Amino acid sequence: METREIVGDSEKQIAKEWFEELRDMICEDFEKIEILKDSGEFSSRPPGKFEKKQTFRKSKNGEDGGGGIMSVMRDGRVFEKVGVNVSTVYGNLEPLAQKSLSSRHNIPGLKEDPQFWASGISLVAHMQSPKTPAVHMNTRMFWTKGMSWFGGGSDLNPMVENEEDTRYFHNELKKVCDKADKEYYTKFKNWADEYFMIKHWNEPRGVGGIFFDDLNTENWQKDFTFVKSVGRAFLDTFSAITKHHMKKPWTSEEREWQLIKRGRYAEFNLVYDRGTQFGLQTGHNPEAVLMSLPPIAKWP
Questions:
Q1: C-alpha span between 256 and 297 (Å, rounded)
Q2: For 38, phi and psi rounded to 5 degrees?
Q3: What are residue 134's phi and psi, to 5 degrees?
Q4: From its phi and psi, is residue 115 left (phi > 0), alpha (psi between -120 and 50) or beta?
């Protein structure tokens, strides 16, 4: 992927503001779910609310490295733990991060001038009910002086697969992909199936979705429009799935299996996830980087 398309400060600012707007939309929607009259097993609890905390990235030379806002809801009626992070970080890439990027890109001049800028949103939701799937979504923009690109995706992680949910989730993502490019869905679905594989167990993390990286068609506005549509589709689809399942009763055996599946989820994020590795390599707040980990998990 090489391009000479000029992407400057105005595009960066537009992308940053969208990720923050999407965060606000998601937090508002999830808090509305929490206050529904009959939300299931924990309806008698006070509804959950997001708590926000500023995060910072430490650069080795002591200069400002950017940061973001971590929004976390814990112990709600429906959401056991959900985190929605937005961040904008910048500075010079350390050699380890340069090596990681260079393994996928031929970035012109990166070694001589390792400046970078990155902005994005990342969400992981772990639900109270084992009948309601966990979910992940992130979208981001990455910039260097040599090139820029988008990445992200969304994948569903049920405790026990529900074919209706899987079909609905994938169909909605396919609509978004097809609107942008008829080849996107198959390409990005296959990428998700490969990426979200827990290799040491030889099992998928969930039922997949889409995953994309290095997206640069040399039409920034087209790529950005697609990224926005992925975020909107995630919110509409997951909210509908959550409302459909949250009132259903569950058993102690189903809860036990949920905790075991969460253990697998944690293993993937700690061992394989690119975002986790990049965040820790570049000095971002570990609490924000590790927000995706479940509140309770088991390893039998």
A1: 9
A2: -115, 95
A3: -75, 165
A4: beta
Question: How far is residue 63 CA from its own chain's centroid?
Answer: 27
Say how many domains are in the chain.
1
Which CATH number goes with the domain that contains 148?
Answer: 3.40.1500.10
pLDDT digits (tens, 9 = 90+) for 84-98: 999 999 988 776 666
pLDDT at 102 over 60: no
Tokens of residue 222, six digits: 């087209």
User: Could you tell me if residue 208 is inside a domain?
Assistant: yes
User: Measuring CA to CA, which residue among 205, 295, 207, 206 is closest to residue 259?
Assistant: 295
| Integer Cα distance of 42 and 148 in angstroms | 45
- Strand 203-204 and strand 197-198: the pairing is antiparallel
Reported as a single tens digit per residue, the pLDDT across 255-287 is 999 999 999 999 999 999 888 887 777 767 788
Residue 1 lies in a domain: no
Residue among 134, 117, 20 at smallest CA distance from 70: 20
* Domain coverage including residue 127: 9-292
Task: Please identify which residue in the block is written with the tokens 């975020």.
Answer: 231
Instruction: Work out the angle at residue 85's Cα, subtended by the Cα atoms of residues 248 and 62, and round it to the nearest 5 degrees.
Output: 155
Token pair belonging to 239: 């909210």
Q: Are 83 and 292 in contact (CB under 8 A)?
A: yes
- Answering whether pTM is above 0.85, one says yes
Q: Mind telling me the catalytic residues?
A: 136
Quick check: is 4 in a domain?
no
C-beta atoms surrounding 146 within 10 Å: 17
**Residue 253: burial class (beta carbons within 10 Å; 0-12, 13-18, 19+):** exposed
- List the one residue out of 71, 97, 94, 69 whose CA is nearest residue 82: 71
CB-based contacts of 138, cutoff 8 Å, min separation 6: 120, 121, 122, 123, 152, 153, 154, 275
The reply to whether 218 falls in a domain is yes
